[in-house]
Amino acid sequence: MAAPGSFWRTLTAPLLRENPVTLQILGICSALAVTTSLATALTMAASLTVVLTLAAGLISLIRRHIPDTIRLILQIVIIASLVIVIDQILQAYFFEISRALSVFVGLITTNCLVLGRTETFARHNPPVPSMVDAFGNGLGYSLVLIFIGCVREVFGKGELMGRQVLPLAEQGGWFTPLSLMLLAPSGFFLLGGLVWALRTLMPEQAEAPDFAPPEHREAAE
Amino acid sequence: MIRGLWDREMVALLLLAALMPMALVWIWFGGAGAVGRLGLALIVSGAWHLIFMLARAQPPSFAGAITALAVAMLAPEDMGLVRIVLGISFGAVFGELVFGGWGRNVLNPATVTLAFLGFGFPTFAWPDFVLPVAWAAIPAAGLGVLFGVMPFGILAGAALVGGGTALLAGGPDWVVPAAAMVLVLLVADPVASASTALGRWLNGALYAALVLLFASGWEGASPVQLCVAAALLASLAAPLLDDIAIALWTLQRRRRHGGS
């Protein structure tokens, strides 16, 4: 068994240093689609974290028995079963939010983040470290979703969790909603800005440039 | 061409000079309100160029003034200080400066700003123009082509499609003034438009075709709004048009000279 310190590192590394969304740009389709309000972002983040953690645990348990040739099918079957369970629970207890999320809970099955973690980590590690790693990655994904969801809901509607936080101009306040925030492009802009900010703060995350600039720089003075 | 006369700032200054007829007529008819809008746009755009010079050592460019002029002329009216500043900041930073400054941008920053303002705050009215401002687009385009800073193919392609449709089917004439101004201010931009000869003709033709399409099918859109949307789509398609032009050229060479 690994030392407790290494568990802590496995858990916290995906939060900022190796965040799956901002560093590896994984799972952004759902990150863009469900972040128009904080409530849907939170639900989606919780669902994905639960699915990812359980799937990593299950796959890690049977990792010595998975034939290499059909490993992807097997992993997807496990993940899909868990997703169906989560989807049914959401429909039973949070019907409104489940309707707002529409297909995106079902699409956790094909989320590259889930398959990426089970394929690269859970298949080669014992259950407990796998689940810690999966939980950490789920938290990293949640962090990004919650941030973008907050920004989009506050600036797009002046609300947070459905409660008014900025007084609207049409009700005598000063705030006019920025309706662009509720459209899909703003998700791209915010995520792009977030990646930019993180890579400025932590330059070791930045990718190597594709082209080297020429040696003699005299243009555009 | 680094040591000669033609560096980036020369192009920017000549482009600015070419736009002067239109800008001056617009200020003449717009009065103090126009001067105020232009001043605000210049300050915000200049401030971002300054910030990027200090933070990333990017040389500032007079192209910022071109962006400011286009935004001041075309942006929706009475938006209030905060929204205009937000829009210009977004356009200047995400449209131009993050890519490394003018000359490396993919889209015209003014187009990005106007699209952002139009989609972000759809309730504000787009500006109307008196006809002399639109007529001044013709000398502006002429000067630009004469100086060699505005691509002739784009202007000609747009004129060909627009004029041809007008002759054959009597197209929507209420959109022509705005379409001409947007063509000169946003589409005929030497950086973000197509850069092969055929690509430029296609780019201009595509812009005119999109304007005609929107004018006939977009209910309730003002002329400037639909022209800005057409400019955005046309400049998004510019790399594709260049690619088509290059592919055709390669195909032609292969047929002529053989080889695989």
Automatic annotation (TrEMBL), chain A:
Keywords: Cell inner membrane, Cell membrane, Ion transport, Membrane, NAD, Nitrogen fixation, Oxidoreductase, Sodium, Sodium transport, Translocase, Transmembrane, Transmembrane helix, Transport, Ubiquinone
Cross-referenced Pfam families: Rnf-Nqr
One Gene Ontology MF term: oxidoreductase activity, acting on NAD(P)H, quinone or similar compound as acceptor
Class in the EC hierarchy, top level: oxidoreductase
Gene Ontology biological-process entries: sodium ion transport
Annotated transmembrane regions: 45-62, 74-94, 100-117, 138-155, 175-198
GO cellular component, one term: endomembrane system
Membrane topology: Multi-pass membrane protein
Subcellular location: Endomembrane system
Assigned EC number: 1.6.5.-
NCBIfam families referenced in this protein's UniProt entry, alphabetically: nqrD (TIGR01939), PRK09292.1 (NF006777)
Protein name (record): Na(+)-translocating NADH-quinone reductase subunit D
From TrEMBL, chain B:
UniProt-listed Enzyme Commission number(s): 1.6.5.-
Entry GO terms, CC: plasma membrane
InterPro entries reported for this sequence: NqrB/RnfD (IPR004338)
Keyword tags: Flavoprotein, FMN, Membrane, Oxidoreductase, Phosphoprotein, Translocase, Transmembrane, Transmembrane helix, Transport
Enzyme class: oxidoreductase
GO-annotated biological processes: transmembrane transport
Membrane-traversing stretches: 12-29, 81-102, 114-138, 145-168, 174-194, 201-218, 230-251
One example GO MF annotation: oxidoreductase activity
Name of the protein: Na(+)-translocating NADH-quinone reductase subunit B
Organism: Roseisalinus antarcticus
